[in-house]
Amino acid sequence: LAIQWFPGHMAKARKQVQEKIKQVDLILEVVDARTPESSRNPMLDEIIGEKPRMVILNKQDLADPALTREWVQYYQDQGFAAIAIDAQHAKRLQQIPQLATKLMAEKIARKKARGIRNPMIKAMCIGIPNVGKSTVLNRLVHRNIAVTGNKPGVTKNQQWLKASDNFQLLDTPGILWPKFASQKIGMRLAFTGAIADAVFQEDVVGLYGLTYFMAHYPDALKKAYHLTDADLQAAPHDLLVKLTKTQGFGEEFNRMAERLIFDARQGKLGRFTLEKPGEIDADTE
Ligand code: G4P
């Protein structure tokens, strides 16, 4: 589900999130482990200010494990708590309340000193659409709702939901807009499905993906589409032409591009990550 963002939506989303932030001790910033930096909201630092934050790299089941480890380390080095999880399969999810308790230890101790017996940590999930905020939230609070309010600008009465004895979450995630800083970031977000397919031409996004996989995950391509080493020496455009034919799409390059994007999102091209910690500064300039 992707939303098209306009300045009015952004202002409204920001205002809503800022209202909610006042009520919480801790922010759970959910990002996509395949595009950790590109899938962050560009103004989050400004929006949440000094609030403690945990970066949750979700969809780790789809991401390159070695790079996920690098990214977790990268965020930890920046002073954030960071954890990689797979919310869909509830993998490592139970570590979030534990990490939150550790992160908030001082505040909890202060409250206890004031006579509060079981101080509650109040938190909320924040992130751009489609990173898995609702899934993380629902799994953390053991709730089984397929669809949560996934539109910015919809207000309703808020509730606190229990994740553990001392950990509560706001019942709706904060939804913020994605980065539009560069073509490269746009490609990554489009390829993983974080921004609307309609915004991008699938042949351009597909060719971006093919080029990236040829350079970084050639074996996955070989296996999925029965390619040879020689095929992978071709120019990406020529390989797209060849794949279009061999996969039965004739000359409809768009359909092959669409297939490639679909296969990648489904995990049929193996686990992948589209950016590395050292590369991001160059990308955003
Ligand atoms: P959001 O609230 O941030 O917008 O995201 P949401 O939880 O709705 O999750 C978006 C999609 O990502 C969902 O797929 C969800 O099942 C999937 N997802 C969430 N967490 C994980 C994860 O850790 N691993 C994997 N592999 N998938 C995850 P969907 O319902 O099929 O929606 P869509 O395909 O229509 O986007």
TrEMBL record:
SUPFAM superfamilies: P-loop containing nucleoside triphosphate hydrolases. Keywords: Cytoplasm, GTP-binding, Nucleotide-binding. It is found in: Cytoplasm. Residues 14-178 form the CP-type G domain. One of its GO terms (cellular component) is cytoplasm. GO terms for molecular function: GTP binding. GTP binds at N58, K59, Q60, D61, N130, V131, G132, K133, S134, T135, G174. This is Ribosome biogenesis GTPase A. It comes from Lacticaseibacillus zeae subsp. silagei. The gene is ylqF.
